[in-house]
Specification:
nine-stranded mixed β-sheet, alpha+beta, Rossmann fold, Nucleotidyltransferase, domain 5, 16 helices
């Protein structure tokens, strides 16, 4: 039945709902659905989603060509701090590397007096050291001490510590000592889950490499069990079907490989959403895009240029820095469930604490006792008195009671209280959007905002005002964009090697050799994923800096032989990127030397993207979509038409005030704005002339 396989499925598991999108590769037809998430057994919600979407298409598991999955298992484990006791083995004399960290206070704390250092991932009594030392080139200064290694392994075995991370000084340059330690652990403590830094991150900076390795070890058992469970259960529906898991770097990896690289799934969901929005906006003709993924608890934003989301290796999850390549996502606690509260000084605050899905906003059937952003929207009439097409009724009265009580303490009317909550939430989102643009040397006004997620589009018009954005694009089924994004991503593996050298002293032969070795690793991995050599694509980059700087700027490196002219092109690209990012460069100052730091290769196995289907035009104008009207508060109460988005057609223009509704989300069109439907069913929000 191999010829019958034709459907690819993307599944994004969130805290409340599991979103599912299926694409028929023969016809281009898309089916979408949602099913409640099952936190006690996430695999159950996953499989329910597969069955539900196949039922919609009238097909069986035999028709499935591949399943791609975005998961928050690793992220949630870190954010909730649910880590088992971990052991740490490092080089003698460096047992305090986790305590010393970067010797710096995070941004946002002007005075270290107010900052409380978070508990470290491994307490001091679970750190063991081993004699042996390499220098930064990988040359052995002192031999590996096997007796120390055996003592460390036996200590953790006797203490019942079954998760261990190993990070030796300069192991990025040579992994001999770490591999020797791994062999000792396998002999002396065979039941242990072990991560070694040279397999997780071959990059210098001992603190970040140590923490990244320990995080990888910490999440390995749970991610491994979760992925293996789904693989087994999926075989009941679609035996042997390829099963991919989304990675933080904007690629996917087979489930069989992910269990060996669990840390790569950290920002799985937000990465998929950014890529889905990038493809949708690119097809609509926009190459500079800001994505805004609004959920119940938070909003994730990122920047996309020429279809490629920005990548970073300076990310973190919770308190833990992770130097793995990840899409540069900024998350702010501004979702539909964000709670409005009064500070001790008596000022109104919104978030980051959220009512979540349980108990949820006050307007929910068994809602909480604190007003939220959703309560403000429902009181102002900007969302209907129900969610998901009527599945969840909302109580306007309960929301009004909570907001009136809060307004009484502030001395504000009901409407002004609700508007204040939405204004603060909009500015929280706007500040996140500034972080990924202005803070990166980009002009926010050059971008098209693309909003998705259940709550992503509710504040779009206000964000356009605050940031001076030219337009906002709202895709169809915005709540399912992250699941759709899973169907647009290639298989991708990243490899890095630190090679520090001044540009003027660069050993081109060594650089070429390191790139060749990294490409060899990438090709071998893609071979294992089933990609022929002719289909594989290699992407080379390098991290450069000015001598004396603490951090680097990443720039592309052309394919082919790296001769002196090609190396000079890389240096010139660095000067240009530095100027864009920081506003200056030293291209014309020979006294300021350039330094190469890291060489990187991404191995990419292309996957067929779903076709974007243009919609058929319809006659009759927007009247066919009008479902009624209700009183909505913008600057004042006004009788506002409500429209069914699925009844709109290409070319339709909806002028505000209006509220456009669909199964999973709502788009309030403010007075002075218009929403135009494009050929693919996207809504394009723009300000009317003269407004």
């Amino acid at each position: 039945m191999a010829a019958a396989r034709r459907v690819r499925i993307g599944i994004d598991t969130g805290g409340t709902f599991t979103d599912v999108v299926a694409v028929d590769e023969r016809t281009g037809a898309t089916a979408t659905t949602k099913t409640p998430s099952t936190p006690a057994d996430p695999a159950e919600g996953f499989l329910n989603g597969v069955r539900k979407v196949l039922g919609q298409l009238g097909l069986s598991g035999d028709a499935v060509t591949a399943v791609s999955h975005g998961t928050t298992v690793a992220t949630n484990q870190l954010l909730e701090g649910k880590l088992d006791r971990i052991g740490f083995i490092t080089t003698e004399g460096y047992e305090s590397v986790l305590e010393i960290a970067r010797q710096s206070v995070p941004d946002g704390y002007g005075n270290s007096y107010f900052w409380v250092k978070p508990p470290r991932i491994v307490p001091a009594d679970l750190v063991r050291t081993v004699r042996g030392r390499l220098d930064h080139t990988g040359a052995e200064v002192r031999p590996f001490d096997r007796d120390d290694a055996v003592a460390a392994a036996r200590f953790f075995r006797d203490a019942g510590i079954t998760t261990v991370g190993v990070c030796f000084l300069h192991a990025y340059a040579d992994d001999t000592h770490e591999r020797a330690m791994l062999e000792v652990l396998r002999e002396e403590h065979p039941g242990a889950v072990v991560s070694i830094s040279s397999q997780v991150l071959r990059e210098y900076r001992e603190y970040e490499r140590s923490v990244t390795t320990l995080v990888d070890a910490a999440v390995k058992p749970r991610v491994g069990a979760y992925v293996t469970n789904i693989r087994t259960r999926l075989d009941e529906i679609a035996p042997g079907v390829p099963f991919y898991v989304m990675k933080s770097n904007g690629g996917v990896l087979s489930a069989a490989e992910v269990v060996h690289q669990p840390i790569t799934t950290m920002l799985s969901g937000p990465a998929a959403g950014a890529l889905g929005a990038a493809l949708i906006a690119g097809t609509a003709g926009f190459d500079r895009v800001l994505t805004c993924d609004g959920g119940g608890t938070s909003t994730d934003v990122t920047v996309v240029i020429d279809g490629e989301p920005a990548l970073t290796t300076e990310g973190s999850v919770g308190d833990y820095p992770s130097k793995i390549p990840m899409i540069d996502v900024v998350t702010v606690g501004a979702g539909g469930g964000s709670i409005a509260w009064l500070s001790p000084e008596g000022t109104l605050k919104v978030g980051p604490k959220s009512a979540g899905a349980d108990p949820g906003p006050m307007c929910y059937p068994q809602g909480g006792d604190q007003p939220t952003v959703t309560d403000a929207h429902v009181v102002l009439g900007r969302i209907p008195p129900h969610l998901l097409g009527g599945e969840i009724p909302l109580s306007v009265e309960a929301a009004r009671g909570g907001l009136e009580a809060l307004g009484g303490r502030l001395g504000l009317s009901l409407e002004r209280t609700a508007l204040g909550i939405l204004e603060i939430s909009a500015w929280n989102q706007a500040n996140a959007l500034r972080q990924v643009t202005v803070a990166r040397g980009l002009d926010v006004r050059d971008f098209t905002l693309t909003t998705f997620g259940g709550s992503g589009s509710l504040l779009a018009c206000r964000l356009m005002d605050v940031l001076g954005l030219p337009r906002t694009l709202v895709p169809p089924n915005p709540g399912n964009v992250s699941a759709f994004g899973l169907l647009t991503v290639d298989v991708r593996n990243d490899y890095v090697q630190t090679v520090v050298s001044r540009h003027t002293d660069l050993d081109l032969g060594r650089v070429q050799s390191v790139f060749g070795a990294l490409e060899g690793q990438a090709r071998k991995a893609l071979d294992g994923e089933g990609f022929g050599r002719h289909a594989q694509r290699m992407q080379r980059t390098a991290d450069l800096r000015y001598v004396g700087q603490a951090f680097e700027v990443r720039v592309p490196v052309a394919d082919g032989e790296l001769d002196a002219a090609a190396a000079e092109e890389v240096a010139q690209a660095f000067h240009a990127a530095h100027r864009q990012l920081y506003g200056y460069d030293f291209a014309d100052d020979p006294r300021q030397a350039v330094e190469w730091v890291n060489l990187r290769v991404s191995g990419i196995g292309p996957i067929r993207r779903p076709d974007m289907v243009e919609l058929e035009p319809r006659d009759g104008g927007t009247d066919r979509a009008v479902t009624g009207s209700r009183r909505v508060f913008f600057d004042d109460w006004v009788d506002t038409p409500t429209l069914d988005r699925t009844a709109l057609a290409p070319g339709d223009v909806v002028r505000g005030p209006a509220v456009i509704e669909e199964f999973g989300s709502t788009v309030p069109v403010h007075p002075g704005f218009a929403a135009t439907v494009d050929a693919y069913g996207n809504l394009l929000l723009t300000k009317e002339a003269g407004q």
